[in-house]
Write a structure and sequence with these properties.
The complex is a heterodimer of chains A (about 700) and B (about 700).
Chain A (H helix, E strand, L loop, with lengths): L5 H4 L8 H10 L5 H9 L1 H15 L14 H21 L4 H11 L6 H14 L2 H12 L7 E2 L15 E5 L4 E5 L7 E4 L8 E10 L2 E11 L12 E5 L12 E5 L2 E4 L8 E3 L6 E3 L4 H35 L22 H39 L10 H4 L5 H30 L12 H7 L9 H21 L8 H12 L12 H25 L8 H25 L1 H4 L4 H21 L1 H7 L4 H19 L3 H6 L5 H4 L10 H12 L5 E3 L9 E4 L9
Chain B lengths: L14 H10 L5 H9 L4 H12 L15 H22 L3 H11 L6 H14 L2 H12 L5 E4 L15 E5 L4 E5 L7 E4 L8 E11 L8 E12 L12 E5 L12 E5 L2 E4 L8 E3 L6 E3 L4 H35 L22 H36 L4 H31 L1 H5 L6 H7 L13 H17 L8 H12 L9 E2 L2 E2 L1 H25 L4 H27 L3 H4 L5 H19 L1 H6 L10 H13 L3 H7 L4 H4 L10 H10 L27 H6 L1
Parallel strand pairs in B: 1-5, 2-5
Antiparallel strand pairs in B: 2-3, 3-9, 4-8, 5-6, 7-8, 10-11, 12-13
Helix pairs in contact in B: 2-21, 3-5, 6-7, 8-9, 8-10, 8-21, 9-10, 9-16, 9-18, 10-12, 10-13, 10-16, 13-14, 13-15, 13-16, 15-16, 16-18, 18-20
Classes of the chains: A alpha+beta (about 700), B alpha+beta (about 700).
Bound molecules: flavin-adenine dinucleotide (2 copies).
Subcellular location (chain B): Peroxisome
InterPro entries (chain B): ACOX_C_alpha1 (IPR055060), Acyl-CoA_ox_N (IPR029320), Acyl-CoA_Oxase/DH_mid-dom (IPR006091), Acyl-CoA_Oxase/DH_mid-dom_sf (IPR046373), Acyl-CoA_oxidase (IPR012258), Acyl-CoA_oxidase_C (IPR002655), AcylCo_DH-like_C (IPR036250), AcylCoA_DH/ox_N_sf (IPR037069)
Keywords (chain B): FAD, Fatty acid metabolism, Flavoprotein, Lipid metabolism, Oxidoreductase, Peroxisome
């Protein structure tokens, strides 16, 4: 293609320029962006990001400009090159784990070392004995062996107990035989397995003497350390392209009677005695639930900022995008309206903006709870002996805080990742046509985030665990209504029981605390309804799944509202931020809560927490008023999430508002398709007349 | 591929047997229902004919598409577009056959705009002479066209376009010009690399009238047909910069383009002049006749979008239903025996509630699509007779329905995909491409949020009329409904649609209609009586449009039961369709419960009974699910889905795709970070990939 001619280079967008529009937006609000950023992220983290970012930007391999164009193999190859470079940089700059994680976060694409760095190391560390750690962990930390976590199979994901891969103890050779009896036993979806790993932590059914003991973890070598070819009897590869996550080599793995030594089975909690061939259980695996809870809490923690990326892009763009004059604008008022001024756009974006903060504060609270709980457990755990079996949500429901924490993390993982995933798509669509371009930066981010709704517990499945916990808590409260509440859940349940004869009257439209109460009331109401169905009427579990789903959703929404409210009332927040800003955060709180309340109106009404009139007023008055009040602060609020342009990689979301210039630049200068001249006529079989430089050729 | 030990492995449960058992469990006559749904214009036979030919041609093999880069996808898209033209000629196929090729080939072809917007615009807006000149060239593909309306800065607001066409009274030419960067044409399909000609929509600038006035004034947007590339070299003409806008969420094979003009001159004839003309002598602008036909064709396009939405949703539901009967996970929690098999996930209500209402929705869309089709044909005749009256009603209905139906389909695909857990995320789901491509639909042909304002404006107007003269003889069903509403609004008793677990179909229709009428009345109150600002009302107006469109879906579905074609279907089919009607209606009612209670359509106390009624309906529908999706007759070639295959060989196909047809597995990588080499044995120190960045 001919170089861009001068007359094009001189063109500018019409009307007020993007940077002027954003400057005007920023001028109409007093929110201290830096202060608010520090409240969200802390100064330490912001500095760390900046430091790491400067290093990444200076390395060619992290250049993002071709990401949106490349095919699967090139994407993967680049991702592997980046993963290697990052490991180099980590050594070179002596990065801490936090810094290394920050770097990955800033690059924001899944990389082929991803599962090695996380689940592989964690599994050995958490479930291996000291000798096993010595044997595997030391090498793994140096990347002399590279691993992955192979649990899910072609036929089973959610139902881990149904896994088909077997590890049969062979007493003669004192070794295990790994085997895949069916096609559906093939490991599947395993990150880093497809092309990268040479070891795997494999979950397999342990079989001794024909008897199955359930799934256990084994550390298995799968590829030769030199040639990187699969070992004898091992069949391994990449599962192919996906909706997103295409920089990751999710893999499959099959075994044909592969013998592995006794020490392969991670033996901190259970082992096979090589002398007696007996299965021996030792220690408490409840720490494993601790890990699960940690992973889920992290998902909750991240959901806010995951969503904030989309909200930042869409909000900035909607402030710059101008379309139509206001229908009611007076004749003399010239110029088109920013689409962010249309309530139709506000109702999609501003509740999501509120949700970013709601999720953020909830995530922080979750993390704190987790850490407190770890401390308690470590103190208490030394000598308890509990059996593997039912999860903690059933064991200590109603009394113990681990159970509460576990259930809460399940429900919040489901709710927060659903809000974030769906919210991103709402943001993308709110951008109109340009949202559909890869350069919006939302599409690929959304596609890569989507599996979060499925892994670490499918979002629908998880709600059953929450319901189980709430049912159990209801039983505790019903059986002893006068006992003192042991945690928040029993507190709201017994409060409801006590008042069920008197009823309630919550002033949700003018009292912030009453809003929390109303959410609690609805949760308690739904809990006792579920308990009536299951415990009194003995309805089959499966018939109640939809009710359970709604119950869990209600409970999690209550948690989010409560945590957001508590955060805003806390010293920690009020000491860091000025009063007017705090006032705006309160408005975000109200917007999030009332918008949710209005959406779920019929449950609130059915529980008696609010009247039909209140719902109607929330919808037509309160929410509308809040949109209007928050609108002027929208750009500063997203600014305070402090995403660097390099991270956003978006034409629409640029901090300087040069939306159109950047769209044009990427299309005309970076786009390899424009180096091709085609023959367009159907009668000619020539496709490309002329190709300048290197662009991919067809490979059918 | 070398043989290996995995060649003989079988899945634990046999998918083929599972689907057979499902099919044996229902007495629906699939062929009969398929014909009921899809017999218009020989759709089923045509589909079969075209699939037979394309699926045998290696160029139309779909399994590598997802591995290709953007330039490769375009390359492939162009190759297929050309091949289809040659096949059509070779086989002597009709235009309908050609459209079927595009449908089953299932990707946005670089020729797509040529045979849709480009040819339609010339046909509808060109004068007789212009048509005589251009049409043969277009139909013969001597030129290849596109439709350039949207610009970088403007899409929804067409009147705000910035490209200008300035009349030069001396040379009798137009000068096409892009005064700003935001005037660049943008998003226009087939323009990036393929087209030789474009329909360009630009502001017509004419010298100001009056002896002493200077300068130019705009006469609004007009359409021009303009050559943009040289017929031989295919290079852009002088004064034109044109190219592809880069990768998108979907639409990979399509070269959506950008284009800028530098005082580019075109002859007077370039302006399409059936409805508007610039005089040679005086430079005066005259409008000729009524361009209502243009709205007509827009309405037609939207009608087709709805018919298409039904098939798109049916496709997603087909995949989800078949896979979820084959996928087993967990034994029943209440099961007493270790020997019980694991449950099919479609037997879990939390899976059903995501998929079965969508299955019901495919039928709701169908009957309304039929209605639109008939309405369009009916009013086309009256338009040609010069009566534009019915168009407003039709146009307004079509906007609201376009918005609702494309949203239901777009969201439905994603709901189905997520209901399938991990495998739904994989390339083998067959829902990745369709999801990404279809997501353009909520935006194109009228942004789904924007166009609901047209519906609302129309309804407010109707309500105003009805209030003024509540007893005028009603011209259409909407007025009739509004008059009924106005008569009864003072003494409305909120209804319930379930009485002692009996469902009242008449009441269902009543509450949907009442809600739509009440929301119309409120909008009328707010805008006309209280004079509230339009912008403040938008959210309310959007909700109104949705409610009104849902009312159409429900009413039309209900009315279909009194037609003979539906009621004479054999076996359980009529009653299963009724179950679909109820499920769609109750599910919608439950989802938007507070909108129904706040409008006094239903009583708040009747809401809690809905969840159990919905569960019961799903239980009724469940045994027929596989046969219902079979009736939509989506060929495996089009499904392109391991999970949705009609023979149930889900796991075999997933494995085959991963193991035997995955190019990544032909490369061995070097995983150690100390070695800069990326591809093992390449020894290039990582420079290969670096060069591509
Ligand atoms: C990108 C990606 C990366 C992954 N990486 C890894 C990895 O590194 N290692 C690894 O081991 N795994 C990995 N996984 C797998 C992931 O953990 C599983 O996909 C997840 O556990 C869900 O299981 P499934 O896919 O089998 O879904 P299924 O269990 O088959 O779910 C299908 C549907 O059935 C429903 N369902 C199932 N059981 C019930 C029930 N009892 N009641 C009601 N509804 C039910 C679900 O809600 C869902 O809608 C990855 C997955 C993805 C998508
Ligand atoms: C895949 C694809 C193919 C296309 N092909 C073509 C083609 O071949 N030829 C062509 O000419 N064009 C084409 N287009 C462009 C398409 O027609 C426009 O994108 C569409 O009209 C929407 O306009 P926009 O992008 O300017 O959205 P905008 O109008 O900028 O919308 C942005 C946001 O503002 C909101 N909004 C805007 N105005 C108002 C208002 N008054 N009140 C309330 N809310 C408002 C919208 O709802 C949306 O959320 C294509 C687009 C895509 C995505």
């Amino acid at each position: 293609m001919a170089p861009t001619p001068d007359w094009v280079k001189q063109l500018q967008p019409s009307g007020p320029q993007g940077h002027e529009l954003l400057a005007a937006e920023r001028a109409c609000s007093q929110i201290p962006v830096e202060k608010l950023s520090e409240l969200i992220h802390t100064k330490e983290v912001l500095d760390r990001k900046q430091r790491v970012l400067n290093i990444l930007k200076s390395e060619k391999v992290f250049d993002k400009s071709q990401n949106y164009f490349a095919g699967r193999i090139d994407r993967f190859e680049a991702a592997l090159a980046r993963a290697k470079k990052l490991t180099n940089l980590r050594i070179k700059h002596g990065w801490t784990l936090d810094e290394y994680r920050t770097a990955n976060e800033l690059i924001s694409e899944p990389g082929p070392y991803g599962l090695h760095d996380s689940m592989f190391l964690v599994t050995i560390d958490g479930q291996g004995t000291e000798e096993q750690k010595e044997k595997f962990l030391t090498k793994a930390e140096k990347y002399e062996i590279i691993g992955c976590y192979a649990q899910t199979e072609l036929g089973h994901g959610s139902n881990v107990r149904g896994l088909e891969t077997t590890a049969t103890w062979d007493s003669a050779s004192k070794s295990f035989i790994m085997h895949s009896p069916h096609l559906t036993a093939s490991k599947w979806w395993i990150g880093s397995l497809g092309k990268t790993a040479n070891f795997a932590a494999v979950m397999a059914q342990l079989i001794i003497d024909g008897k199955s003991y359930g799934p256990h973890p084994f550390i298995v070598q799968i590829r030769d350390l030199k040639t990187h070819e699969a070992l004898e009897g091992v069949h391994v590869g990449d599962i192919g392209p996906k909706f997103g996550y295409n920089t990751m080599d999710n893999g499959f793995l099959l075994f044909n009677k592969v013998k592995i030594p006794h020490h392969s089975m991670l033996a901190r909690f259970s082992r096979v005695d090589p002398q007696t061939n007996k299965y021996i259980r030792q220690g408490s695996p409840s720490l494993v639930y601790g890990t699960l809870t940690w992973v889920r809490s992290t998902i909750v923690m991240q959901a806010g900022s995951v969503l904030a990326r989309g909200v930042t892009i869409a909000t900035r763009y909607a402030a710059i995008r101008r379309q139509f004059q206001d229908r009611d604008a007076p004749e003399w008022e010239k110029g088109e309206n920013a689409v962010l001024n249309y309530t139709m756009v506000q109702i999609r974006l501003l509740p999501l903006l509120a949700a970013t903060f709601a999720l953020h504060f909830t995530g922080k609270a979750m993390m704190n709870l987790y850490q407190e709980n770890q401390k308690k457990m470590n103190a208490a755990n030394a000598n308890t002996e509990s059996k593997r079996g039912p999860g903690p949500e059933e064991l200590g429901a109603g009394s113990d805080s681990l159970a509460d924490l576990h259930a809460t993390s399940c429900g919040l993982k489901a709710l927060s990742s659903t809000i974030a995933a769906e919210g991103l798509e709402v943001c993308r669509r709110a951008c109109g046509g340009h949202g559909y371009s890869s350069f919006s930066g939302i599409g690929s981010w959304y596609a890569d985030y989507l599996p979060t709704t499925t892994w670490e517990g499918d979002n629908y499945m998880l709600t059953q665990q929450v319901a189980r916990y709430l049912l159990k808590s209801a039983r505790t409260v019903i059986s002893n209504p006068s006992a003192a509440a042991t945690n928040d859940t029993t507190a709201i349940l017994s409060n409801y029981l006590k008042r069920s004869e008197i009823g309630c009257a919550f002033d949700v439209l003018s009292n912030d605390t009453d809003i929390v109460q109303a959410f609690a009331w609805r949760t308690a109401f739904l809990t006792f309804e579920a308990s009536k169905h299951r415990d009194e009427q003995k309805k089959p579990w499966n018939d109640l799944l939809v009710d359970f789903y709604r119950l869990s959703r209600a409970h999690s929404q209550y948690m989010v509202v409560k945590n957001f409210h508590e955060a805003l009332e806390s010293r920690e927040v009020s000491s860091q931020i000025d009063t007017p800003t705090l006032g705006i955060l309160r408005k975000l709180y109200r917007l999030f809560a009332l918008h949710t309340l209005e959406q779920e109106g019929s449950e609130f009404y059915a529980s008696g927490a609010v009247t039909v009139k209140q719902i109607s007023l929330a919808r037509t008055n309160a929410v509308m008023k809040l949109l209007k009040e928050i609108r002027p602060h929208a750009v500063r609020l997203v600014d305070s999430w402090a995403f660097d342009d390099w991270v956003l990689d978006s034409s629409l979301g640029r901090e300087d508002g040069k939306v159109y210039e950047d769209m044009f630049y990427r299309a005309s200068e970076l786009n390899p398709l424009n180096r091709i001249t085609v023959d367009p006529y159907p009668t000619s079989s020539v496709l490309f007349k002329k190709v300048e430089g290197e662009v991919g050729r067809s490979k059918l | 591929m070398m043989p290996d030990f995995t060649d003989h492995l079988k899945p634990r449960y046999d998918g083929t047997a599972t689907l057979q058992a499902e099919r044996a469990g229902s007495n629906i006559d699939v062929d009969e229902l398929a014909h009921h749904l899809l017999s218009r214009d020989g759709f089923l036979e045509r589909q079969k004919k075209v699939v037979d030919v394309l699926s045998r041609d290696p160029l139309f093999k779909k399994d590598q598409q997802m591995n290709l880069s953007r330039p490769e996808r375009y390359h492939l898209g162009l190759a297929r577009a050309k091949a289809i033209q040659r096949i059509v000629r070779r086989e002597g196929w009709s235009h309908e056959d050609y459209k079927m090729c595009e449908y089953v080939n299932d990707e946005m072809s670089p020729y797509h705009l040529h045979m849709t917007m480009f040819v339609t615009t010339v046909r509808e807006q060109g004068s007789k002479e212009q048509q005589a000149y251009w049409m043969p060239k277009i139909l013969n593909y001597d030129i290849i066209g596109c439709y350039a309306q949207t610009e970088l800065g403007h899409g929804s607001n067409v009147r705000g376009l910035e490209t200008t066409a300035k009349w030069d009274p001396v040379k009798k030419e137009f000068e096409i010009h892009s005064p700003y960067l935001t005037a660049s044409k943008w998003w226009n399909g087939a323009m990036g690399r393929t087209a030789t000609h474009a329909i360009v929509v630009a502001q017509l600038l004419l010298p100001k009238k009056g002896a002493d006035s200077e300068g130019y004034e705009s006469h609004g947007v007009q359409t021009f047909i303009i050559q943009i590339r040289d017929a031989k070299t295919h290079q852009p003409l002088d004064g034109i910069v044109v190219g592809d806008i880069g990768p998108k969420y979907g639409y990979a094979p399509m070269d959506n383009g950008y284009m800028l003009f530098d005082h580019h001159r075109v002859p007077k004839l370039a302006m399409l002049s059936r409805y508007a003309e610039v005089s040679d002598e005086t430079g005066a602008f005259t409008r000729l006749g009524h361009p209502a036909v243009v709205y007509g064709s827009l309405t037609f396009v939207r009608g087709q979008i709805i018919m298409h939405a039904r098939l798109v949703l049916a496709r997603a539901v087909t995949v989800a239903v078949r896979y979820c009967t084959i996928r087993r996970q967990f034994r029943d929690r209440d099961s007493k025996s270790d020997q019980d098999e694991e449950m099919k996930v479609l037997d879990y209500p939390t899976v059903q509630i995501r998929i079965l209402p969508l299955l019901a929705t495919t039928f709701a869309l169908h009957y309304t699509g039929e209605l639109m089709y008939n309405m369009y044909n009916k009013s086309r005749e009256t338009i040609e007779k010069g009566d534009f009256g019915p168009l407003a009603e039709l146009h307004s209905a079509s906007s609201g329905l376009k918005s609702l139906c494309t949203m239901l389909a777009a969201d439905g695909i994603e709901t189905c995909r997520r209901a399938m857990g991990g495998h739904g995320f994989g390339g083998g789901s067959g829902l990745v491409g369709i999801n990404a491509d279809y997501l353009s639909k909520p935006t194109v042909e009228g942004d789904n949020w924007m166009i609901t304002q047209q519906v609302a404006a129309h309804l407010i107007k109707k309500m105003t009329e009805a209030v003024k003269d509540p007893s005028a003889p009603p011209k259409d069903p909407t007025t009739e409904l509004f008059q009924f509403y106005l008569k009864n609004r003072k003494h409305r008793i909120p209804q319930s649609v379930v009485h002692n677990s009996q469902i009242d179909d008449k009441a269902i229709v009543d509450v949907f209609q009442w809600r739509a009428a009440d929301l119309s009345y409120r909008a009328y109150q707010a805008r006309v009586v209280e004079k509230k600002p339009w912008t403040k009302l938008m959210i309310q107006l959007h909700a109104l449009s949705r409610a009104y469109s849902e009312q159409i879906l429900v009413t039309t579905f209900y009315n279909s039961f009194s037609t003979t074609t539906t009621s004479t279907l054999s076996g359980p089919t009529p009653s299963v369709l009724k179950t679909c009607f109820r499920l769609y209606a109750l599910y919608t009612l439950d989802t938007f419960a507070s909108s129904f209670t706040l409008t006094n359509a239903v009583s708040p106390d009747s809401i809690p009974a809905l969840s159990d009624a919905i569960l019961d309906l799903m239980t009724e529908l469940r045994p027929h699910a596989v046969k219902l999706v079979d009736s939509w007759s989506i060929p495996d070639f089009l499904l392109d889905s391991a999970l949705g295959r009609s023979d149930g060989k889900v796991y075999e196909e997933l494995y085959d795709l991963a193991h035997r047809r995955n190019p990544l597995n032909r490369v061995t990588f070097n995983p150690y970070w100390r070695d800069e080499e990326i591809v093992l044995g390449s020894g290039d120190g990582g420079r290969g990939i670096l060069a591509k960045l």
